[in-house]
Specification:
Elements: H1 3-11, H2 20-23, E1 26-29, E2 34-37, H3 39-45, H4 47-52, H5 58-62, E3 64-66, H6 72-79, H7 97-106, H8 110-120, H9 127-136, H10 139-152, H11 155-160, H12 165-186, H13 189-200, H14 220-233
Parallel strand pairs: 1-3
Antiparallel strand pairs: 1-2
Helix pairs in contact: 6-7, 7-8, 9-10, 10-12, 13-14
């Protein structure tokens, strides 16, 4: 490259990309307050918006969509996650997870909804979180909360569920399962103790050439330790 051409390359200013306002062709109406957005981005992210914006629908004809599920500020946080290279689980926080979940569920934006569930799985399970999981179809979170409340739920958890008999039934059924599991294991305590003592009497090295069904080698000492731990739990 010649020297003048090199100098020109260094001094040339890169062309600017389009601004959000320049590519916006739809207004979201929050009851008097509006924000401009890009219809193509909404249609790619959400089947609900896609149906609204197909030719012939009033939203497409007037280029205005009413939003009632969130405030302008809440929706802007959600919308900012939809752009190219914008999505990241790290952008979900305890402060915004509830609104992001409600918006993403309503507009069927699965990637955001799944990110919200993943975040909620790290928060303490409560009666309110159980109701939230049931409302928005978060199966993993729902099952996690059911198990936790059945095992160690508080009075506040149960009060939150008092108007939801179907969910209370799930909690009650899980509570019944847990004692039955414990009783089933406890009924075997005598056999477990006898087996542990028998294994403890085996000469060193006996059984070294045997294997369990999963292919793991049988070791008398290891089996004794495992049986001892199980016995201590009963």
């Amino acid at each position: 490259m010649s020297e003048p051409a090199a100098k020109r390359a260094k001094t040339e200013v890169p062309e600017a990309t389009a601004t959000a306002e320049e590519v916006s062709d739809v207004l979201l109406d929050f009851g008097g307050d509006t924000i401009p957005v890009g219809s193509q981005l909404l249609r790619l992210a959400s089947p609900v918006f896609n149906r609204m914006l197909v030719s012939g629908m009033k939203e497409a004809q007037h280029s205005i969509i009413k939003v009632e599920v969130a405030s302008k500020e809440e929706f802007k946080v959600f919308y900012d996650l939809l752009g190219p290279f914008s999505w990241s689980n790290d952008k979900i926080s305890e402060a915004n997870v509830d609104t992001l979940l409600a918006i993403s569920d309503y507009y069927q934006v699965d990637i955001v909804k799944q990110g919200c569930e993943q975040f909620l799985l790290g928060l303490p399970p409560t009666g309110d979180r159980l109701l939230q999981a049931q409302k928005h179809g978060l199966n993993k979170q729902y099952q996690r909360c059911i198990v936790s409340i059945a095992k160690e739920g508080t009075k506040d958890d149960l009060l939150a569920l008092q108007s939801y008999p179907d969910i209370l039934l799930d909690v009650a059924l899980k509570q019944q399962q847990q004692p039955q599991q414990s009783k089933a294991l406890a009924s075997m305590k005598r056999e477990i103790t006898a087996c542990r003592k028998l294994v403890g009497q085996l000469p060193s090295g006996v059984g070294g050439d045997k294997v369990f069904l999963n292919g793991a080698p049988f070791k008398g000492f290891n089996a004794y330790e495992v049986l001892q731990k199980v016995e201590n739990l009963l």
